[in-house]
Queue: 3 jobs
Job 1
Amino acid sequence: SAVISQKPSRDICQRGTSLTIQCQVDSQVTMMFWYRQQPGQSLTLIATANQGSEATYESGFVIDKFPISRPNLTFSTLTVSNMSPEDSSIYLCSVEEVGYEQYFGPGTRLTVT
Amino acid sequence: EDQVTQSPEALRLQEGESSSLNCSYTVSGLRGLFWYRQDPGKGPEFLFTLYSAGEEKEKERLKATLTKKESFLHITAPKPEDSATYLCALNTGFQKLVFGTGTRLLVSP
């Protein structure tokens, strides 16, 4: 399976600022996904990112708040904009491989104060 | 609406005490049911994929089974290192995974 890394692993940010999270994969993949895991909760899909096209956002998530870039087949970024304490979560990227299996990165733990 | 429900929310076992975790689901078109293990502060680790009723997969002390309405993750003679949150997820098409809320397993020595 693909090896996925994320940067930063954790960050503490002030309200009103933005943070960009990077996701790097060691092989070329078509589909990349961004999830949010709020404290004590399960994973919720934010958006799907295909290289060369606009990201597709799930209900409740908008591009102005969570802009995503996908410049090539091994890299993606998620920006959390104008942060509030409610954005404190773990943000995870994943990739899809054969058989619809998704493999996840280690996550970025974000705390907004 | 596609839904996934996991039970119990938390489970405490003694080392060697076998048990099962449940994942019940309703879905219009199942393209795979997935089990993940998640340790605190880490991303989910892929365990199994099941595609059709009657299918079974095994890995060490874990065995996953699937019916038309639910999946079970059987843990045989667990060890403390099996302590983690176990997540069930459905692929309902459109490359989207719908996750359950997980079962927190604690295995005591």
Job 2
Amino acid sequence: DAGITQSPRYKITETGRQVTLMCHQTWSHSYMFWYRQDLGHGLRLIYYSAAADITDKGEVPDGYVVSRSKTENFPLTLESATRSQTSVYFCASSESSPEGAFFGQGTRLTVV
Amino acid sequence: AQKVTQAQTEISVVEKEDVTLDCVYETRDTTYYLFWYKQPPSGELVFLIRRNSFDEQNEISGRYSWNFQKSTSSFNFTITASQVVDSAVYFCAPFSGNTGKLIFGQGTTLQVKP
């Protein structure tokens, strides 16, 4: 199916564990983004990528790692999960002259 | 650098009222785009409209209209004859054509009461 897919949709993990959230898009969009959404904070940009092998920090990058070896994939890794990283995570993609940025359905991550 | 401000945290209206959501953005970019998104209670992010920095033409789409004024750095969104289904959080989001960074305002929660 065409579009942008996040997996898993729900994840519970323990403090200190490494966890990777996956994001896959089928449009070959240049740009991809990761956001977290917490009550009272809207969507905050964690990392973004302009193309394969090019990534940049967003507003709240600490504690996260990203990679983009292929245009269509943009995984987000929490190296050592903390309770403060409990959130809903959204991935998005867009073209460089975007008609819009399109979002995945989100991953609800709970760190216990 | 980019900054976007949605000063209205929550708005409550009665059905059929018109409502305007405000967005003020700051950027030094020469090329940028402005988006509006809707996030209904189900949680998904729905793209509504895009404007680029060269196009100040206002737009109307059904009950939705957008007013983009570069001189005041504002990109406001009006819903005419609001309906209960319009209840959602609305986000304004500037995209930098220079860096590719897309950031979001804090969002405005709109509640439309029957």
Job 3
Amino acid sequence: GQSLEQPSEVTAVEGAIVQINCTYQTSGFYGLSWYQQHDGGAPTFLSYNGLDGLEETGRFSSFLSRSDSYGYLLLQELQMKDSASYFCVPNAGKSTFGDGTTLTVKP
Amino acid sequence: KAGVTQTPRYLIKTRGQQVTLSCSPISGHRSVSWYQQTPGQGLQFLFEYFSETQRNKGNFPGRFSGRQFSNSRSEMNVSTLELGDSALYLCASTLNDGASYNEQFFGPGTRLTVL
């Protein structure tokens, strides 16, 4: 079957670094993507890891380990506007978003 | 290039009624996916259409159906509405050009309330 695990909530302060972990179990896995959704808004694409290793996009980095069925999103120099929900999405035909992780950034 | 549009943005229906939601993907995008988002269940995949054919389907009852037209526009229909169908319904379009991964572009959603 398919399963997806992320922490439900994470809290951090401005300027800090936070890591959101994701473990998955799915068949036909091609890669892992991350989406951000602000309250009341639509999800927007952040990054995709098709291969093992780290992908960096500005303040955000994403990591994938296929052998461990594990990935994470790293957010650096946190800003208040980073308060949002973050979804890891295995790329495997059906898109499983799950409940995501709600990140709250405090001043 | 215009983004994904969904109509209507808000809808109020009563139990037992049916509803049709519409999604226009980004020009040139060939794949449309539908999702249901509720506070308790997160973001759940309904189905995906590509070239007028349903390519993937989530775990929803048969009351939920969809279709895609030749211009890639898509509609989803929910029949015999239940209170639990109250949710934000999101549509996402994907280019689907054969690349290893195509990001999904989401529309603003249709907020359905069932009374």
